C-alpha cells in the first residue's frame, strides 16, 4: 500500500483560516503527539494501569475535523481521537488522570483512557467500546437540535472497521431520514486491529456508502490537517443550514498497533516506515507552514516548548492525584437510589477496603 | 367514571405526560399516523405532531440509540418496540450504552422502552416473548410490568419521569381484557413498590403481569374448594424488586409459590427464591416452589402453547402441594 499523498505538500489552501489559526492547528497536533509520547513513558513505568491507544500519524484528521466545530456543537470521539477531544476542550491533565485511573479523573476511575465526556459545557460524549453505537446516539443528539431548532451540529467519528457494524448503518440511516444535523467521519486508517480495510469491506471507497443513504459522501486526505478541516467544515456548514448528514471519509494511516501491546506482525515490511518518512502529518504541515505562510522554525519550536511544559505540568499534577475511594464504585448507577448497597460479606470492613485501595492482584480486594 | 382498558390506560398516561412535559416524545415503527400495531399511540400524531411522534425505520438499535442521544440533551424519549420480542435487536446498545451511561460518563439517560409482551395469544415464537429476565441482570436499567389498568397508567408516568432508563413491559393479553375505572388525579405509581392484589394467610403467590390474573383465579378456586386463604402479591416492578413486600408476605404465610409466564430456567423466580433464602429463611415452613413456562420456545398451536405456559390449574395444583407440605 503506497503512502497515497507521498511527499506532496498539502494541496489545500489555508481555507478561511488566519495565520494564528493555522499555528493553532499545529499546536493541537503537537500537543496530541507529545501527550501520547508521555503516556508511553508512563505506560512503561506501569503507571497507566490499562491499555494505551495511540493515534500516531492520525493527528491531522482528528485535529482538523474537530476544529471545524463550534463550542456548542457536540463531538463524539473514538479511540484515535485524542486530538479531537483536546481541540474540544479536554485537557492533558484529564487524559493523564484518566489513563492512570485516578480518583479525580473525569470518570473517577470508572472508565479507561479517553472514554469520557462533558455534555454540560465543552460538548463531547463519552464513547463506549462497541463500535458503531455512537452513530445512532449522535443521530439522537442531533435530532434534539433539529426538533428544538437549535443551530447546533454533531460530529461522530467511526473507523473503517465500524462501517461494517449494524449500528453504523441504522444510525446513519436514521439521521438521513430525519435530516439530522450530523457529520459522520470515517477515519480510514487502513487497519481495524489487524484486519486491512479490503477484508472489512468490498467497496473501494467507504465514502460511496453515502449514496445508499441518500446523503453526500466525500473523501479527502486525512493526513492534511487543512483539508481535513475544510472538508469537515463544508459538511458542518451544510448540516447547520438544514442540509442533513454528510459522510466524510478521511484517508490516513495507523502507524502504531491497535494498542501498545500489538506488535503489528500483520503489517507488510516497510509500510510503516514509508508512511513515517513520506507522510507524517506534522512534518508535512510544518513544511506547508514554512513554505506557504512564512512560519519560521523558531516559531514552531516555541510551540513545541510550550506543549512540553504543559504536558510536564499536567504529568506532575496527575501523578500526585489520589486513587479513587473503593466505596465510590457503588455510587451513581442510578439517579435513584444514589448508591447500591454493600454486599453482606463486605459490611463493616470499610477500613479493610480502604487499606487496600490499590489491589495487588486481579480479583481480590485485599491481595 | 367510565371504565378504561389496560391499553387505553397506557395511552392516557402517555398523553398526560406529553401534555405535562414538552420534552417527552415517542418514537418507534408505525406509531405515527397509523397509531402503532396495537394502536397504543393512536391519535398522538394528530395531537402532538411529527416531531413528537416519530415514525422510525425498522432499526431497534438505531432508534434506541437515538433515544439515548436525545435523552442526553434533555429530552425524554419513549421508544415503542412493535413487539417486545424485537427488543433483543437493541440488547447491546441498551445494556452496553444506555445502562452504563450514568455510571461511566455521568450522562443522564432518562428514557423508556415499552412494548407488547407475553403469550396466551397464539402469537408463536416471535410475538409472545417475555424477555424481562434478560435485562434483570443489567445494573443501570429499571424494569416494570403492570397487571392492571391503573398500574399501567401510573407506571408509564413514573417511567417517563424517572431519570434513568425504564423498560416498560405491557402484556398484550391484558390490553383489552382488563378494564377498570382509573383513580382520580395523577395516579402515579412509584417504581419499586409491589401491590397486594389479594390478602390471605395460608400461602403466598408472588407473581406479575398476566399471571396475576391466573393467580387470582386460582386463589378464588382454592378458597372455594379447599378453604385456603391465599395471598397474591403483584410485583409490578421487577428491577428494583420490593424486598420489603416480599419478606412481609413470607413472614405472614410461611409458604411461597412464585408464578411467572417466562421460562423457568434463569427466570425471575430463581432470583426471588434466593432473596427469600437470604432474607427470610427461618420463616419458611415449606420449600419455595415455582410455576413457570417450560423451557422451550413458545409454540403457536393452542394445544402446544397452553401446555407450555402456566395455567390456573397448574397454580392450583402447586398451591395444594405447598399447603399440604
3D architecture notes:
The complex is a heterodimer of chains A (367) and B (325). Chain A contains 12 helices and 7 strands. In chain A, a hairpin with a 2-residue loop joins strand 4 and strand 5. A 5-stranded parallel sheet of chain A has the order 1-2-3-7-6, with helices on both faces. In chain A, strands 4-5 form a two-stranded antiparallel sheet. Chain A is α/β, with parallel strands linked by helices and 367 residues long. Chain A folds into 2 domains: 302 residues, 3-Layer(aba) Sandwich (Rossmann fold), CATH 3.40.50; 43 residues, no CATH class. Chain B has 2 domains: 177 residues, Thiamin diphosphate (ThDP)-binding fold, Pyr/PP domains (Rossmann fold), CATH 3.40.50; 130 residues, Rossmann fold (3-Layer(aba) Sandwich), CATH 3.40.50. In chain B, the strands form 3 sheets. Chain B has a 7-stranded mixed sheet with strand order 3-2-4-5-7-6-12, sandwiched between helices. Chain B has a 5-stranded mixed sheet with strand order 9-11-10-13-14, sandwiched between helices. The model of chain B has no long low-confidence stretch (mean pLDDT 98). By secondary structure, chain B is of the alpha/beta class. The chains are: A alpha/beta (367), B alpha/beta (325).
Question: Could you give a quick summary of the protein structure above?
Answer:
With 367 residues, chain A is of the alpha/beta class. Chain A has helices at residues 19-44, 59-66, 82-87, 92-99, 134-147, 166-177, 209-213, 225-240, 271-278, 281-293, 297-320, 350-355, and strands at 74-76, 154-159, 182-188, 191-192, 195-196, 217-221, 246-251.
| CATH superfamily (homologous) name of the largest domain in chain A | Thiamin diphosphate (ThDP)-binding fold, Pyr/PP domains
Radius of gyration of CA atoms of chain A, rounded to a whole number: 21 Å
From the helix content, strand content and strand pairing of chain A, which structural class follows?
A: alpha/beta
CATH architecture of the largest domain in chain B: 3-Layer(aba) Sandwich
Q: Most extensive interface: pair and counts?
A: A-B, 42 and 45 residues
Shape of chain A: globular
Strand order of the largest sheet of chain A: 1-2-3-7-6
Number of helices of chain B: 12
Helix content of chain A: 25-40%
In N-to-C order, the SSE pattern of chain A is HHEHHHEHEEEHEHEHHHH
Shape of chain B: globular
